[in-house]
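Z., the sequence and structure:
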Amino acid sequence: MLLMTLRIALRALGRNKLRAFLTMLGIIIGVGAVIAMVAIGEGARVTIRSQIASLGTNVLIVLPGTTAQGGVRTGSGGVNTLVDGDAKAMMRELPAVASASPALRRPEQVVAGNLNWSTLTQGVAPEFQQIRDWQIAEGRFIHDGDVESAAKVAVVGETVVNQLFGNDDPIDAVIRIRNIPFRVVGVLAPKGQTSQGTDQDDTIIIPYTTMQKRLMRITFVQSIVASAINAERLPEAQAQITALLRQRHRIGPDRQDDFYIRNLSDIAEAASSSARVMAVLLGSVASISLLVGGIGIMNIMLVSVTERTREIGIRMAVGARRKDIMLQFLVEAVVMAATGGSIGILLGIGSSEILNGWVQWPTHISASIIALAFFFSGAVGIFFGFYPAKKAASLDPIDALRYE
């Protein structure tokens, strides 16, 4: 029965191919726009998450606090309160902390042969590699012996290699920072850009003790980078670090912390939430086209009921029940909506691929988005086709046969 009704619906739509296509056009554009817009929003969310993940997993950054002089408060780092012993104490005493590394950073002009390049120089401990989950493409990372002896060794990023060495092998090459020679012992695997557009591969990593003694001549550290055992214990690790540093820095119960802790997972969640809101907003705007397409289907189906009033009367006269008439027109509406939805899905996927390939805009299409779009297009057909179908089924057979 249903198969016969579907065959009749296809035959009826085939008699007015252009009108049926123009009716489906609203659904096609609506579904295509929804998929493309949601793909753009999801692509932004996935990209932001991957970029933040490249900064490290379960990462906490401890920064020195502020100070006030004459009523004027300085920004972060206005007072030097962190030392490398704080990082060692975190690893030694805190069960929720997996690793911790002192960190210093400043831009430096680096020279190799007759080439030079301005890059970010970072002084860290060997634990920094695990915290940042930074793989080594060639050679090795700095080790504890380098830190203890303040060795003049360096691990360089891919951008620095390209600028200073080109196609030459940088391992065991000598670079100079402030006329101090450093031997290259490793090359970092590329990490790409951050969400702010900063090139993470444009960096040189040296032992933090070397940077303290030879480049900056200081005894404190600018920050401490720490990682929790896992994501679930990140709040616990943050609380333990706070308690430990207050104890080590002899901060009384009524005094404010002379440091503050930045939680990268909070930044990731905030950025991801913003991208999710953008995806919902874009999808909601695009779904207006689906509403317009549904109204178009209702309009054409009402016209079709008027045009086929006599046909409806004949079918009723030969035994068709009212529910058969209603089912026929409802199936026609659903067929138009589902066909338009299928074409719209292909249009949305194609548009997303074009944006990704030509404009280099990140997009992400999931099977759930496609399934939801197809289901929604069918629901639009049922919703907007119900009234015309009910009107057709409620016609009086005698009046329908008399209709000219």
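Residues 264-307 form the longest helix (44 residues). The first strand starts at residue 59 and ends at 64.

Let me know what you think.
H.
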